[in-house]
Amino acid sequence: xxxSFREFSSADWRHLRPLTQSAKSxxxxxxxxxxxxxxxxxxxxxxxxxxxxxxNVLVTIAFDDPQLVEWQIRLVRRYVPHAVHVxxxxxxxxxxxxDNRRIxxxxxxxxVRAPSNPWSAIGASRSHGIVLNWxxxxxxxxxxxAAFGFLDHDIFPTAADDPFAPLATQDVYGIVRPAGPRWFxxxxxxxxxxxxxxxxxxxxxxxxxxxLDTGGGNWKPLYRHIDLAKLxxxxxxxxxxxxxITVAAGPLQWCGTWLHEVGQTGDPRFAAEKRxxxxxxxxxxxxxxxxxx
Length: 293
What we know:
single chain, alpha/beta, six-stranded mixed sheet, four-stranded antiparallel sheet, 8 helices, 10 strands
């Protein structure tokens, strides 16, 4: 959504930004609405929705990296065993999607291939957000879970955890990202009590004109009505994946006891080395989870 007119400066008005931002926002909403109407595999979608009913549900948005999907399925099964886990695949590669489907099927995890994404070749964040909105309208609202959460595919629990427990006393939970006077929950780890949001016009897309990344579209329908000072949050910190480099060059993120690879960020020269470090950190947990599948 564009800013309210009173938030624009005189320079903004001289450059017609209120008009151009409104036009772009309308375009994004129209694309989003058209995408929501697209149908994926109807049987897989219906089965996933049915599995959600009355349960706590974690939905992973997968994207072109079956190794991460396999690790996460195994670790969620071990450390968050009471949650229904669903893989919603936004991969641009059919080969990766086929591997993700096989991995999910072997683990008896519900798998749904998202419709072809209009934003995949343009921007990862916008592509991610439109799939979250598709999931909300076509799976979660239909499934009526007790609570639901979204995960990036590169975040892994490393200890027993119930990320839904804080929802006993609040409507949302996750990692807060501020943006000036606004804030939102990071889309890679965010939990919602379904009864509290079921009738709200949620929007998990971006709101770049207000500085809000994926999930920030929920500022207007949801987050602005929540007292941030009273909100329990998931603790988080960034560290370099090895000594001798800066966090920016090779970040890992600890979200409580969940490890986030932060695969889209950092010096690409370190990507293989960082993946090896993540594999080493997860190895004892994966070994312990070996009998869980």
